[in-house]
Amino acid sequence: MPFEPASEVLLPFTVLDLTRVRSGPTCVRQLADWGANVIKIEKPPEDKSEALGGPRDGPDFQNLHRNKRSMTLNLKSERGLEIFKELVKRADIVVENYRPAVKDRLGIGYDVLQEINPGIVLASISGFGQDGPYKDRPGFDQIAQGMGGLMSVTGEPGRGPMRVGIPVADLCAGLFCAQGILLALLERERSGKGQWVKTSLLQAQIFMLDFQAARWLVDGQVPGQAGNNHPTSIPTGVFETSDGHINIASSGGEMWERLKRVLNERALDDPDFADGAGRSKNRERVNRLINEHTRKMTSAEWIEKLNEAGIPCGEINSIDKVFSSPQVKHLKIAQDVVSQERGPTRLVGQPLTLSRTDSSIRVPPPLMGQHTGEILEWLGYDKDTAAEMKRAGDI
Fold first, then answer.
1. Residue 184: domain span
2. Is 374 in the same domain as 276?
3. 202/348 same-domain check
């Protein structure tokens, strides 16, 4: 069966991809980019309405679904379900992000799949978990950002809750799910058995609160909004320059002393600022004094001067400037591919490298059902049978 792996790392593994929108596709993208044989299973088209996840030729779909093959399969038909179960026999991983009850209604819950293939790893992403009082609620990223506490610590004080500018709950749930799959595959090397990997947008979001969650769990503090200021490391935040803004992170005794030397501002020697607790209590005064100096020079001039002093700092880029950065170009995270719908296209590559093996964007996102025929042939179906199944709406 023709298959162009994007890497050698996950080459032995076959993935059945039942996902849509973002969290599930994010998970599967991690597997596809590192060489897994991903079969994206899509519902046969019934109308021209726009599907969840946006148009296939849109930037979002293109970036999420590269390095996959696509087959159409009607899981609600008897024969479509039969074909899916035949695929399960040959697969290692099934990934889905339906509401928890859907897979059981379709007859593809974990109990069914592990009877077909005891080594199968089923990975499920939901809004709030596979069980519990909220399990049947529909879940989307912004809902999880709110329920998971992120919106309460994002934005400026007194301005009300604010969402983060990326779908962080979706993305992190997908990444954690991919990690869980790899853990299950490692464990299978010893036990010979698969297992059910479960995560949710809510769990991922709460985990990503990290030190903000620990402030409550350990010390009983309820963190609030701090705007562009770091909530605990001061001064760390956004400062004005003569032509814009920059970030400066100079918390801690040594960094604070370096910053004072660079600014040459006697007022910063105030005993009220002598330690972190004092700078935290007097944050507004500290920031005001720093801003009085940073406004005198351009962002580029300050970045050069602060870096010479070993003080962490950086420009605040719009997205276009991110990809024009010489360091970003050096890292080669923007990768070229020839899209079937758009022609030459650049997509976001993987954010890590291995010393001997690498990932790539080998093939663009598939057309819907582009590989149905070759996958059915792999399963042993002839062309006449495939044509009849298409007429019947099974594929």
1. 14-208+331-392
2. no
3. yes
Question: Looking at the annotation, which residues are catalytic?
Answer: 170
Q: Both tokens of residue 330?
A: 């050096």
Helix or strand holding residue 347 (H, E):
strand 343-348
| Whether residue 254 sits in one domain with residue 365 | no
Quote the tokens at residue 317: 């880029």
The Cα–Cα gap between 144 and 150 comes to 8
Q: Tell me, yes or no, whether 259 and 363 share the same domain.
A: no
Closest CA to 123 of 93, 88, 98, 100: 93
- Read off the tokens for 119: 């080594």
For the segment 43-88, what is each residue's pLDDT rounded down to a tens digit?
998 644 446 678 999 999 999 999 999 999 999 999 999 999 999 9
What CATH number is associated with residue 131?
A: 3.40.50.10540
Pairing, β 93-96 against β 121-126: parallel
Q: Is residue 95 part of a domain?
A: yes
Position 293 in a domain: yes
**In terms of domains, do 309 and 350 share one?**
no
Rounded Cα distance between 184 and 176, Å, is 12
* CA separation for the pair 394, 43 (Å, rounded): 9
Give the angle subtended at the CA of 60 by the CAs of 57 and 65, to the nearest 5°.
80
Residue 265 is predicted with a pLDDT of 85
Residue in 32, 39, 34 with CA at minimum distance from that of residue 67: 32
pLDDT at 23 over 60: yes
Query: Which alpha helices (H) appear in the chain, and where do they start and end?
Result: 23-33, 59-64, 78-90, 100-106, 110-116, 141-147, 168-191, 201-209, 211-219, 253-263, 276-281, 283-294, 299-308, 319-324, 326-331, 372-379, 383-392
- Answer yes or no: is 28 within a domain: yes
Cβ–Cβ under 8 Å, residues 37 and 357: no
Measure the CA–CA gap between 304 and 301, rounded to whole angstroms. Answer: 5
What's the rounded Cα separation, in Å, for the pair 389 and 382? Answer: 11
In this structure, the answer to whether residues 100 and 20 fall within a common structural domain is yes
The answer on 203 and 139 residing in a single domain is yes
DSSP 228: T
Residues 196 and 264 in one domain: no
Q: Which of 179, 180, 168 is nearest to 204 (CA)?
A: 168
Total structural domains within the chain: 2
- Would you say residue 366 lies in a domain? yes
Separation between Cα atoms, residue 264 and residue 273, nearest integer Å? 15
